[in-house]
Structure formats: structure tokens, C-alpha cells
Amino acid sequence: MCTFFVQAKNNNTITALSSVTKIIQDKQGFVWLAGHQGLTRFDGSNDITFSLENQTWSLPFSWIHDVSIANDQLLLATESNGTWLFDSQTGETKQVPAKIAPQGHYQALFFQGSYYINAPNTLYRYNPNDNTTKIIQNNIAKSKIIHNDNQLYIANSLGLYSLQGEKLVKLIDGPINALTALPNAIIAITSNKIYRINHNKIIKTITHHEKIYSLCKEYGTDNFFTVNNKGRIAKYSAKDLSPLPHFYTDSQENRVRQMFHDNSGVLWLISSQGIQKISENYIVNHKKIFDIPINANEITLFANEIIIGSYGAGLQDFTSPVFSQNVNETFTKEGLKIFDVLAIKDDLYIASFDGLWRYNKNSKQVVKESFLDNKLILKLIHKNDLLYIATNDDGLYIYNLEKRQIIEHINIDSGLKNSEVIDVLPVGDNKLWIANRSKIVIYDTATKNITSLKTPNTTKVASIIIADNKIFASTLGDGILVFNQLGHLLYQLSKGQKFTAMLEVDGEVWVAGRPGLYRFSPKDYLMTMVENTQQYSFVGSMLVKENKLYAIHYGGVLALELGGKSVFNPTVIISKTTISGRSYLLNKTIQVKGGNDVITLDLASLDYRPGLAKKFKYRINNNDWQKINHNQLTLTGLRSGDYHIEVMATNSLGQWSTNRAYTEIQVSYPWYWTVKIRIIYLVSLIGIILFSAWLLYLRSKSISYIHYMLKNDIKSYGNTMLHINRDLGLTLKLLSENKIKESNELIRSCINELNSKIQSKEPDNLSGKSLDIAIPFLAGFIFEKYQVRVNHTIELKNNKLNYELEADIYKIIFEAIISTLLKSEAKKFNVSLQEVKSKVWLTISDDCNGFYGFDSKVNFDMARYTVRQIVNKNNASLNVFNENEQSSQLVISIPLMYIS
Q1: H or E element that contains 165
Q2: 375-452 — its CATH code?
Q3: Is 894 within 8 Å of 879 (Cβ atoms)?
Q4: In this predicted model, what pLDDT tens digit does every residue of 26-76 receive, in sequence order?
Q5: Does domain 771-898 have CATH number 3.40.309.10?
């Protein structure tokens, strides 16, 4: 039996670290930060800090100036303990034995088989092959060293140098503000220029007019980013230093100490103010806030321009002017509260708190439609020259635009259970799907019939659309409901989330959430959040214009390109393994002694973008996938054997990564399953088989005895029948000879024979009576025939037992008492029949220990065999108790749940 537990952990305090001096990403995808706090590993959700103060993850030092990659290890330059190698998979450390007197090292690099260490004013090279340490340059000011694939460079306030042989050769004169390495070149930035240098030659130079103190290479390309002291981020081509477009917003104004770009596309900016993470932002927010209490507005396309219907400020332009300045003067005060806007040809229909209004593009006038005066209108839908008007308290109106008249009114009198209609969806020729508060109904315009759908939601339905021949209904708290067109619920998507409007675009459904904007496929329901929308709460309507989607929220309108973006598949990894309280970094083949060991796996999806909380699921030995509530899986109670664990996870947008994590668990067999013990088991098994054979032999003897009794019984009844048959045959012969007297004597003999058999018949069945009648009759019969007293107590509730069960209970009582009194000296029996906790309890006790051995499955007679068959038939239990040497009890409990 295997059980699992999950525990939430979220120690995302990384952004508060203000003393970080260096950040890198290892080959597995973890981000490492070095600083005063020590060495911190971050997986996107949780962090582990290795330091002198941490007893669990200990280092012989805390203050680290620099961290870099050295083969598969991390190279650490410390404040007062020299340079160390750190194994990122085990947490073990090993000091680099360079002979450097100052133990305060500012930077260390591993390049072409040697370690280059920057100690105060001196550059050293340590060769691990011959264990020699050599000074490369003395009296050099505080500097930064980098290398590409072919060359090592040193930069400081005096200029940029390259190491050529044993000498430093100056390439640029003057202070170097920022420096980064590309595979075959480096980028250097001075106070007014950006240089691209390759093979110790300046290949390209451009001028800039900013204070740039940090830059970094873009992950996966040779392009690079810069950030100035005002927080402006720029991107350049590494080939010709030309500016490139990008989607990163500017950072806060600060002097950035280091800049880093990870494989998930996040820019990390390190300064004395902490760490700032910036991800690509493909959306543009058009801020639109009006002087109204609630900035809940709607948008639509009118005259090929986006216009806004505000909830209190009337009609508003979006970017281009559409309306005159006095357009809202015609509206009443309540009419300025717009719930929906819908463009139909040259007219703009406006659903408001004060009825239906219409704006004409040609006349540029607003008029109020009188047929829905003072009605609060929530939604407008147009299809086939019909306008569907959903009201707050008067149901749904269908308005014929050509005839300009109401042709149908669907309200409570029509069968609606509530007069508030939130949305309506025409489907086919005569079906209307109506969102009616928390319920959905289908109205047939041909038959006027209304069908209410059974839905699991308790919150309001906000929107209904059709996609992929299915109906999708968004709710304000119960996710999205998916129906077929007959109204059968197929799926409930993202249960617990709040959604408002939905829109189908190119076979994909976009849905506005509170918060966040989402998109999903109507075929497989795979939902993802649109990156960088989690900070917005969307009000309602969306539209598409010129391949851009616009969605309105409480602070304005969000615009984003509809072009597809590649899915980032982060590394899914077991970041920490804990076995019975002892923790290990990463994953390992786990070997435990038994099921009592507790195995805890900390899981990580190495995506550092902001977004949804990551989801995890696992399976064991290719069985079904099991969900994990958070990011920690605890296994215990594993049986002996080998287990293969597989883990899946989502990225920050809710998409399942194609990468998976794996681990193996080996649970040792206990001492009682060794080879010697197995031989003992084999010998014991043979003995058990022989003993069982002997028991089966005894059982066969008992069964033979039962057959013998049945044979005698049948023979007895057969002799009687032969006797009667013989006498009747002689009677016929005598009658044919007209011998009446002899015939009468033979007939009287047959009658006497039958009477004797009938009179000797015992009451061994219920014969259509109830237990209340049959048990007292049986007690009288036994007393009269055997002079044995039978006391009885019947306490059944409402006599609700069916006849078949009563017949079985009576048969048990009859067989048990008759069998016992014939084989013992019993003078009294007590029968108790009670119903307790959905069970019928039958208790029969005697005064001579006559029930001893009644439950034996080896030695039994026909009566005991009959009782056991009835017990098995009713899934009952049978027990025998010897109260003392003079009495015993037979107790049978029959569960009523099995009784049909």
C-alpha cells in the first residue's frame, strides 16, 4: 500500500536579496546567486541557501564574491577563504589549492584547463595538472575577467586587455563600464561607445549617449541586452551592433550591478535595491479610466473603429475620434450607464440602465427606443435580422429589425424560472440557449418549450458561445461548463475560477478572467494563461481588429498580437530528495530498507516567468497519473520491490512541459524473505499441503455421511411409495373382480400409511407464515414432542424483513435446535431475534453446551451443513460461544444491506 502527501512550500524571497554580486544558470536550469548570504539555488518557487550559518546545507564560508561554471561544477571566489569548487548535485565542496597568500578572492574563472583568480591587485593562474600557481600581472587595479571560446580578457578602470601568452595586451584605453562574452567575441561598453571585439581586433563600434553599467548576452543567440541608469532596456545585434526590437518593459530607475538572461526569457537585474525580474510583454495596455464610480466598460467595433460604452460616462472614443463632443447630452442620467454596445450596419444599439438607445452614423444622433422604456437591459445579440434583448427583470425580447417590432417576449409566464437574462445564444433555426442567473435553459421558438439543464455551478453564468459544435458557458466562480447541443454536460473546465466574456478566434477560445486572460482549445480543453495578464481583472467584451485582440478591463483596454508564440518546455526536475529526515540535492536512485521509510520529493518546473502556479502530477510503474496539489510529493508504505516514478509539470502559463523527471526507488526485502527463510517456507508449505489433504479427507468422510443419510431418507420415502403403489394395483384388480370388501381394506391401508407419514412431518419451514407466528408454533411443537422448552424474544423494527429472509432465519432456528436437542441432553433453549445497526442478530442458547463444534467445517451433519449454506447465501457471520461448561450460544448476524 502506497500513500502520498503534499505540502505547499513557497519561499520566493529572492527578489529581496540586496547583496547579490553574481548570478548564473547551470546546465540543469537552476539559477544560482552568490553574495553576502552565501550561495543560493533558486528553482522558480523555492530556494536553498548554502552558507556557514545553515546547518542543513553547510559551507565553510558565507560571503561569496563570484560564481562561474567550471565543467560540471560551480567555481566560487570567497571574501576570506580562497577559491572553491562546489558540486551542484551533491552540495560537496573542495578548495582549489592555489598558492595565493591573500585569501580574499574577487573573481575566479576556469579557462583552457587552468584557474584564473583575481585577488587584490593581482591576477593569478593555477594549473591543476602540475599544481603550480603563477602571477600573470601584478599591480593591476580592481578588474573583471571574462573569456569566450578562444580568449581571456581583463577589464578595469584603465582599459580592456587580452591575455596573449603570458602578457596582457591593451585593446581599449580608458574605463570599461560593462563587459560580456559571446562564443567568438566580446562586447565592451565605455562611457560613450559600444565595441564588438573578435580575435583581439575591434570589429565594430557604435556611439551611445547613455550611462550603461550592465549588459548580458541573450540566451540562445549572440545578441545582447543593455540597461542604462534610467532603467531603459535596449537590445542589439551582436553582428553589427544595430538596435533590435524587443518586448521587455523598462525597469525601475537604478544602477544595475549585473544583468542576466535565462533560458525561460526572463531578464534578471541585480542592484543594491534587490533583484528585479522582467519577462517579455507582448501586450500593450491602453489606459482608459473615466470619471465614474465603477470603471466597468464594454467595447465594440463601429465604423471600423473601436468605441467604448462606459458604465456612467456614455459613449467614448478609444483612439480615433468617432463621436462628437456632445454625443452624450441626449442620454438620461441612467442611460449613460451602458451595459452593452452592438453595431448593426450604420446603427449602434446601446443597452443601458434606462432602456435601449440607438446611435446613427449618418445623422450622428442618439435616440431612445420607446418600446423598452425604463427597462434595464444587460445584453444585445444579433442574428438573422433579429435582435435579442436580455433584460434584468423582464426576461428576453426578440426584436425584428426589418419590421421594427417585438415579435416575441420570453419571461416567467413563458416558463423562465427567473426574469434576469444575462446572455443568449441562438443555435440552429429554432433553439435559444439562455443564461438565466446560475442556470441555463434551452428555449424552442417553434414549440415554445423550455428545457432546464442540470448544471453543477452555483455562481452566475456570464457568457455563452458555440465552438467546435459544443456550447461553452463561463461562470463567475465555477469555471467553464461544456455541453453538447442536446444540453448534456461534457466537462467542467478550471473549476473554481472566475470568467466573464468568451470569444472564438481561429478555432481557439479566448476567455476573460478575474484576473488574467486565458485561451484554450475547444477540442481538448487545454487552457493557458496569456503571459503578463495576471495583474488585470477583465470586465467583459473582447474583439479582434487587424489581427490584434482587444480585451477591456477595469483600467483600460489590453491589446495583443494574435500571432502564435512557441511553447516553452521547462526542465522538470526533482530538486531535493528527503529520505526519513535526511535531505539530498536533486534526484538519486533511492534505496530504503522497508515501507516505514518516508520519501519526500521536492519538485520544480524551471520556468522563471511570472504566471500561474505550476501544477504537478506523477505516476508509479506506468500506472494512472495522480495529481499533486502543490510541489512536494511524499511516499510511504511502499512494499518491497522496485518502483519507477515519473513526474510531469506545467510551465508558468499552465502548459504541460514535454520534459519529465524520473527517479527509481528500491525497497529492500525484509529478513523474513531471505533464501534460507524461503526454504523453510517451502518445507512449511509442503507440510500445510499434506495437512490440508488430511482435512479434505475428513471433509469427504463427512460429506459421505450426509449422502448416506439422504439415501436412507429417500429410501424410506421410496418404500412408502412402493407400498402404496402395490396396494393400489391390487385394489384395481379386486375391483375388476367385483370384490368390494377386499378393495376397501386395501384403500384403507393406503390411507393409514399416508396419514402416518403426514402426521410425522415436522414443521421444518415457514409455510407462508411470519416469524411472529411460526416461532411460537415451533416452540409448542418441540415442547409437545420432545418435552424441551424454547423461550423466544422477537424485536424487529416494523417487521420489514422480506419473506425469503424470514424463511432462512426460521430454517436456521429449526435445524439448529432440532440437531442440538437430538444429540445432547438439552432441556431448554432461548431464541433471541433483534435488529441492531442494520443487522439482524439471531442468538440461540442452550443449557448443556450443545452448540460446541457447531461452526466446524470438518465434522458436521446435514443440519449444520444446511445452516452454513444459509449463512453464506446471506453474507452473514456465524460464531459459537461457550459461556461455561453448562451452556453455549450460537450467534448469527445478517447484514440488511445485502437483502434486496
Answers
A1: none
A2: 2.110.10.10
A3: no
A4: 999 999 999 999 999 999 989 999 999 998 999 999 999 999 999 989 999
A5: no
